[in-house]
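Notebook entry, structure prediction.
Reason for the run: the old model in the group folder had no record of what sequence produced it. Starting over properly, with the input documented here first.
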Amino acid sequence: MKRHNPSISQRGSRARSAARRELMQQTRRVGRELGAHSTMFNAAIAERLKLSLSDLRAWDLVLLHGPLSHGKLARMIGLSGGAVTALVDRLERARAVKRDIDPNDRRRTMITAVSSLREGSQKEVFATLGARIDALLDQFTEQELAASSRLMHEVGQIMQQLTVQLRLRDASAPAQTPVPMKRRRALVVG
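New structure, fully documented this time:
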């Protein structure tokens, strides 16, 4: 959804001041840092649950948007039908989702989150996280919250679209030999 921005001239080019450019760069840096911290937090939770990070995040999408058809989940995360079947199998074994026949179309399977992976051993962690985030959000005006929500939603949409494109591109590309773990560590450290 495009909104009017007074910094955009009639010709469509942006008249960015140095201060605006710096604020945009800072927003991108902070967003990247948030993404990194979020990934590390979710990786720690996934480890505690003995799930992969991708499985945990897929479960979160089912919780947020479900019930989802098998096909819709595949399109959302950019995986093949077979890969989604394996993912849902793992989440079923973890008792996090269930499969049901769609009552409107018996050929279709619906995936529903049946347990909150945020319960049990994770309950205290998520209660603390939720309380601290709520306290932070209380410091912002409704207008600031609306702008922040819009920004996060639209960045999320861009990332989801690019994830699907990357996976489609990777599926059609010839397989590459993975870099051995010792070599990957050397590349990261060096």
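Summary: The longest strand covers residues 105-113.
The old model has been moved to the deprecated folder.
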